[in-house]
C-alpha cells in the first residue's frame, strides 16, 4: 500500500490527531508514532474485514490498572 492510499482509509486530519495522541500519551517520537499508525492502518486494510474509510482506530495500551500481568516462564 502506498502512502497516498492511507488517506482513503483514514483522513490526514485524523492521522495527525492520532499521531499527536500517541506522542503525548504513550511517549513515542513523532516518527515512531507515524510508522506505528501507518502499520496499524495497513494491518486493518490487509485483514479485509473492514471497508474504507475508517471512522475510528482503537489503540489500547495495556496498563496495570487494566489488570495487565507479566507472566514469567520457568526454564
List the SSEs and their pairings:
Layout: H1 3-9, H2 12-26, H3 30-47
Largest sheet: none
Helix content range: 40-55%
SSE order, one letter for each helix or strand:
HHH
Provide the gyration radius in Å.
15 Å
Beta-strand fraction estimate: under 5%
Shape: globular
The secondary-structure class comes to mainly alpha
Number of domains: 1
The number of distinct β-strands equals 0
Distance between the termini: 41 Å
Low-pLDDT runs: 68-75
What's the overall average pLDDT, rounded?
A: 77
Please give the count of helices: 3
Q: Explain this structure to me?
A:
The protein is an all-alpha fold and 75 residues long. The protein has one domain. The protein has three helices and no strands. It has helices at residues 3-9, 12-26, 30-47. Helix 2 (12-26) crosses helix 3. The longest helix is centred in the middle third of the chain and has 18 residues, at 30-47. The protein is globular, with a radius of gyration of 15 Å. The protein starts with a helix and ends in a 28-residue tail after the last helix.
